[in-house]
Each structure stands twice: as C-alpha cells, then as structure tokens.
Write a structure and sequence with these properties.
There is one protein chain. The protein has six helices and two strands, in the order ααααββαα. 66% of the residues lie in helices and 7% in strands. The protein has a single domain, classed as Winged helix-like DNA-binding domain superfamily/Winged helix DNA-binding domain (Arc Repressor Mutant, subunit A, Orthogonal Bundle). With 143 residues, it is mainly α. It has helices at residues 6-25, 35-43, 49-56, 60-72, 94-115, 120-141, and strands spanning 76-80, 88-92.
Length: 143
C-alpha cells in the first residue's frame, strides 16, 4: 500500500512557490500574503472587501489585514460605495498598477519552473488529477 500523502506534496510545492514569490517581491514590501489580493482587485476593480474574501476563499480578518497593508503601501485605495455607505469598494492605485507586470512575470516564472521536464500531455493530466482531488475534498467539506 502506498502511504504517500497528496496533501504533503501539495503543501511542500505551495510553500516552495511562496518562498520564490517572497524573494522576488521583497523589494516592493509585499509577499505571498498580499500579491493574490492585488491580482484579484486588478481584475475586478470596484469589488467589495466581502466579495474579495469570497473570491479568494479567505476569512474576512485575513483579508482586512492584507487590505490595510496594501492601502498603507499605496498599492490600492478604498472608496465608499455611492449607494450603500457601509460598503467599501477596492481599486488599484497607480503604484499598484505599475507593480502588476512584475507580479505577473513572477507567476509565469514560477509556472515555468514547476512545469520544467513535463510534457504538455503530462501537465494537462496533472491538472486533471488535481481537479479530481480538489473536488473530492470539496464534496466532503460541503457535507
């Protein structure tokens, strides 16, 4: 019987990629904990903090901390919703917009590193299998 843990491998790969991201983005004072928020806000400007949390499947407190840091660094800005003053909308600031090509370049580099030595067919099969594992876990969580 094979006792290798899928979760262990995924966790190690994830941590390795986060280390690379942290090294590449350190000079901008952001790391693996913030870049994903910038990616989503850049693609969906004007979304609410609540929607951002849902899209990333991250709790509201973690989102609030990341947003606070990104605002302090002038990468994003928060504006009150014109119709509902309780809601804040998130937008990229100029400094954040200028950083996006660097983030996207870093993510492409990581993808290239991770796929090295794999054929296209193998990569497609890997993603198919990971989707199966992810959906298996999700269906168990949703019970």
């Amino acid at each position: 019987m094979n006792h290798k843990s899928i979760g262990k491998y995924i966790s190690i790969i994830y941590r390795q990629q986060q280390i690379i991201i942290n090294k590449k983005l350190k000079k901008y004072n952001i790391g693996s904990g913030q870049y994903m928020f910038l990616l989503v806000i850049n693609r969906h400007e004007g979304l609410s903090q609540k929607d951002l949390s849902k899209m990333l499947d991250i709790d509201k407190a973690t989102t609030a901390r990341a947003i606070k840091k990104l605002i302090e660094l002038n990468f994003i800005k928060r504006k009150k919703d014109k119709d509902d003053k309780r809601i804040f909308r998130l937008f990229m600031d100029d400094k954040g917009k200028k950083l996006m090509p660097e983030i996207e370049k870093t993510l492409k580099e990581i993808t290239k590193i991770s796929k090295k030595g794999l054929k296209t067919k193998e990569i497609n099969e890997l993603f198919r299998l990971l989707d199966v594992v992810m959906n298996n876990n999700k269906s168990h969580i949703d019970k």
